[in-house]
Write a structure and sequence with these properties.
This protein is an all-alpha fold. The protein is built from 6 helices and no strands. The protein is elongated and about 100 Å long. The protein starts with a helix and ends in a 5-residue tail after the last helix.
């Protein structure tokens, strides 16, 4: 006897597909399931399905945990800096009003720092040839320097 016969072989084929779907979903979580293996082959299939479901679910939980830990590591430095600032302010008895203003300023500064990538944040730049670094600095900083009148004067003046 199989579960198909037990559930009623005379029912339409769609009913059996819905029963199969229900059974497979109940393998992922504890829920109601009146469909049970009735012979050895069905029991082996149910056991293998349960093992695969456990592996898939474990892999999913592991991926989520890993992502959360990576976010925690990325945010650890600003959190530690804010905690040190808070400890310092409390140890020096800074007023609540000033403490609040300093915290707001800290958060604004943190947002600005997070949005800008600095040259020292790219480790390759310290290893690249000096000539390339100079050329990069000229291209990055010279347009800004030419906006100042002093430098503009020298740019259009023949020194010889």
């Amino acid at each position: 006897m199989t579960w198909v016969l037990k559930q009623g072989a005379d029912r339409p084929g769609q009913y059996h597909y819905i029963l199969s779907l229900h059974w497979s979903l109940t393998q992922f979580a504890p829920s109601t399931n009146d469909i049970a293996p009735t012979n050895g082959r069905e029991r082996v299939f149910a056991s293998i399905t349960t093992l695969v479901a456990m592996l898939v679910f474990s892999s999913f939980v592991s991926s989520v945990t890993n992502a959360v830990n990576q976010l925690r590591v990325v945010n650890l430095e600003p959190i530690m800096e804010q905690a040190r600032m808070r400890d310092y302010m409390l140890s020096k008895n800074v007023s609540k009003e000033l403490f609040g203003r300093i915290q707001r300023s800290f958060k604004r500064s943190l947002k600005q720092r997070q949005n800008k990538v600095q040259e020292q944040d790219v480790s390759f730049f310290s290893h690249m040839p000096e000539s390339l670094r100079i050329e990069m600095h000229i291209e990055i900083y010279m347009p800004r320097l030419w906006t100042y009148a002093v430098f503009d004067f020298f740019a259009h003046t023949d020194i010889n």
